[in-house]
Specification:
Elements: E1 8-12, H1 16-25, E2 30-33, E3 44-49, H2 54-63, E4 69-72, H3 79-88, E5 91-93, H4 100-115, H5 118-126, E6 142-146, H6 150-161, E7 165-170, E8 188-191, H7 195-199, E9 204-207, H8 221-224, E10 231-235, H9 244-253, E11 256-261, E12 281-283, H10 292-311
Parallel strand pairs: 1-2, 1-3, 3-4, 4-5, 6-7, 6-9, 7-8, 9-10, 10-11, 11-12
């Protein structure tokens, strides 16, 4: 596959820095996209999704059948895009490998905040109360990481460094693809077909899988009931992987002792959501990977793929439409 001079690259949601960098990497071909993008603008060889709406991108692809490549900085890909890729041969590449370091640090931050009682300590500080929190240690806790890609693998390493007893669960139990992959998995790894065994008695469940047809609703009431009473759930994957109604019920009955949520069914999280007022829920606005370092890794990967596409070289991080990532 190669890009042709004269065809455009449609950019969705780029910052000025990203737009300038892409334009410099392939002068003369870049056209910025937005709502109704591409109308009357000629042909587009590829589309680059930095930030934007999946439906908008799918609509763009529907009106530009000549588009042969889509790159997204996210890991999971919208179902409508996957269907188009499977039907037309559209090549899709993603941002796997760029988010893991930041998100793993975020997971450790919210876990430590929970076990050290920091939210309650901060609340006491605002009220000028000298109040010693109920605190414990991460060392020795049974922590399960659901999803062992870049995010999950890096999270495992940090958890083990703190002395947690870590198990993992992924789609298959064979070694994940990639150099050095064996260093990225815990000693005990379960396949998705044994998720009940994986969840049984966990003190902490970290959800780090992308949203696919297989993972939607993967963690519901039955799965939450397998965790140790008072367990903590951390979701840095996608909101719909966890049944939000079941999550609320588990929090209110005490089955869960708390949750740290970076992703939700609806984003931004509506002001009417009862999650805002749950006392043991820490909410972050889908920002676990929001670091300057993540942005640079995403840009480096995007520019490398632009150069490869321009020169007809194999692209990095090609998505398998049947898997969704």
């Amino acid at each position: 596959m190669t890009g042709r001079q004269g065809d455009g690259l449609a950019l969705f949601g780029p910052s000025p820095r990203v737009r300038e960098a892409v334009a410099a990497s392939w002068p003369g071909v870049v056209a910025e996209a937005g709502p109704g993008a591409g109308a009357g603008r000629g042909r587009f060889a590829g589309a680059l999704l930095w930030q934007g709406d999946d439906a908008e991108v799918a609509a763009f692809l529907g009106t530009h059948p000549e588009c042969r490549w889509l790159h997204t900085v996210a890991v999971g890909v919208a179902p409508e895009v996957l269907r188009r890729a499977a039907a037309t041969g559209l090549e899709v590449t993603n941002g796997a490998g760029t988010h893991g370091s930041a998100v793993a640090e975020h997971v450790l931050a919210v876990l430590l905040a929970h076990v050290k009682g920091l939210p309650r300590t901060l609340a006491a500080q605002r009220e000028r109360k000298w109040q010693v929190p109920s605190a414990s240690e991460l060392r020795g806790r049974r922590v399960g990481v659901l999803g062992l890609g870049d995010i999950g693998g890096r999270t495992v390493r940090l958890l083990e460094a703190f002395g947690a007893r870590v198990t993992g669960c992924r789609r298959g139990t064979g070694d994940p693809a990639g150099s050095g992959a064996a260093e990225r998995v815990p000693r005990a790894v379960y396949g998705r077909d044994r998720i009940g065994d994986f969840l049984d008695g966990l003190d902490v469940l970290v959800v780090a899988v992308p949203l696919t047809a297989e993972t939607r609703g993967l963690i519901g009431a039955a799965e939450l009931a397998l965790l140790r009473p008072g367990a903590l759930l951390v979701n840095v994957g996608r909101g719909p992987v966890v049944d939000e109604s079941a999550l609320l019920a588990a929090l209110r009955t005490g089955r869960l002792g708390g949750a740290a949520l970076d992703v939700f069914d609806s984003e931004p999280l509506p002001a009417s959501s009862p999650l805002w007022s749950e006392p043991d829920v820490l909410i972050t606005p889908h920002s676990a990977d929001a670091t300057a370092e993540t942005d640079q890794r995403c840009l480096d990967l995007l520019l490398d793929n632009v150069a490869r596409f321009r020169d007809g070289l194999p692209l990095r991080n090609v998505v398998d439409p049947s898997r969704g990532y």
